[in-house]
């Protein structure tokens, strides 16, 4: 495990999957990141796919390649590139295992930087191929709700920073695995771009917000603490907690890419919302977590 810290926060990162396993408030002595048993993860990195692919596979020039849910990064060991007291970067290079799923040479570098009460997350992809690279990328942090055991899950609310009046999400269907239906729905009970949290709103699974968001904030009148996300370069935000578990956590997930529409097995180059990186080029996408 690696650790970075400043006066306010301590962050622990597992080199397997480059997964954040802890973000700890040093001043008030509590944990922000989910540590429970109902979902055995903390903040997985999603690459080069998000969600389920139809038949757990996709096509390249008509040839089928297997693709696990959320890609293959979670089981891969990243190597340490750089580390200071308040920052680090971890790198994954394409290898025999990744090439079975994704026949391209790439480097994926996950960077974390602390600044006061903020954690800045950056994913950098180096395309080592002589052709376009198509991929999705997501970050999947799960946060304890209630924060610092203050109040209950239903005492919290999400506020969306968007220029639009309505908050829309992609309808999810289960087969039993979750896919998009291809339809958009309007989020109910939204007032002043704020929606109260309930476990019931996740009965059908994840909520992928379609609006272009700049920021979101998780707050409660029962707590002096809050969690905010500046979405930065990411197109979508997903909200999720484990269905039917009444679990005290909420995932706030920046997405660049989308799960498949059910029944629509796709060529990689035509996957909706994928990032397209030109040959030999490098791209960085990032967002910031803000803890109060």
Describe the structure.
There is one protein chain. 2% of the residues lie in helices and 46% in strands. It is mainly β and 292 residues long. It has one domain: Beta-galactosidase, Chain A, domain 5 (Distorted Sandwich). The strands form five sheets. It has a nine-stranded antiparallel β-sheet with strand order 8-9-10-11-25-21-20-15-18, with no helix packed on it. The longest helix is centred in the middle third of the chain and has 6 residues, at 96-101. The mean pLDDT is 95.
Shape descriptor reads globular
Put simply, the count of helices is 1
Main structural class: mainly beta
Average pLDDT number: 95
Spatially, the strands of the biggest sheet line up as: 8-9-10-11-25-21-20-15-18
Give the N-to-C terminal Cα separation: 25 Å
Give the ordered list of helices and strands.
EEEEEEEEEHEEEEEEEEEEEEEEEE
Report helical residue fraction: under 10%
Tally of distinct domains: 1
**Estimated radius of gyration:** 19 Å
- Describe the main β-sheet briefly: 9 strands, antiparallel
The name of the CATH architecture is: Distorted Sandwich
Strand content: over 45%
Oligomeric organization of the protein chains: single chain
CATH secondary-structure class = Mainly Beta
Number of strand segments: 25
Assign the CATH topology.
Beta-galactosidase, Chain A, domain 5
Query: Which residues form runs of ≥5 with pLDDT under 50?
Result: none
């Amino acid at each position: 495990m690696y650790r970075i810290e400043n006066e306010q926060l301590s962050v622990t990162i597992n080199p397997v999957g480059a997964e954040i396993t802890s973000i700890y408030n040093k001043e008030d002595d509590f944990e922000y990141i989910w540590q429970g048993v109902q979902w055995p993860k903390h903040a997985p990195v999603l690459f080069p796919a998000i969600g389920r692919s139809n038949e757990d596979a996709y096509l390249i020039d008509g040839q089928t390649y297997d693709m696990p849910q959320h890609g293959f990064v979670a089981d891969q060991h990243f190597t340490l590139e750089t580390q200071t007291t308040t920052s680090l970067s971890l790198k994954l290079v394409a290898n025999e295992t990744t090439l079975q799923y994704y026949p391209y040479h790439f480097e994926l570098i996950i960077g974390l930087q602390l600044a006061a009460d903020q954690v800045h997350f950056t994913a950098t992809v180096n395309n080592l191929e002589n052709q376009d690279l198509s991929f999705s990328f997501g970050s999947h942090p799960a946060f304890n709700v209630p924060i610092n055991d203050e109040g209950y899950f239903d005492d919290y609310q999400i506020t969306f920073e968007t220029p639009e009046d309505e908050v829309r999400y992609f309808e999810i269907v289960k087969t039993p695995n979750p896919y998009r239906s291809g339809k958009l729905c309007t989020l109910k009970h939204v007032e002043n771009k704020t929606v109260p949290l309930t476990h019931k709103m996740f009965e059908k699974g994840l909520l992928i917000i379609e609006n272009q968001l700049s920021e979101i904030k998780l707050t409660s009148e029962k707590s002096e603490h809050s969690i905010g996300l500046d979405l930065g370069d990411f197109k979508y935000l997903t909200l999720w907690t484990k269905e039917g578990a009444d679990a005290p956590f909420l995932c706030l997930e920046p997405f660049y890419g989308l799960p498949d529409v059910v029944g629509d097995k796709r060529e990689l180059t035509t996957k909706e919302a994928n990032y397209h990186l030109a040959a030999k080029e490098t791209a960085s996408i990032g967002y910031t977590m803000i803890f109060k």
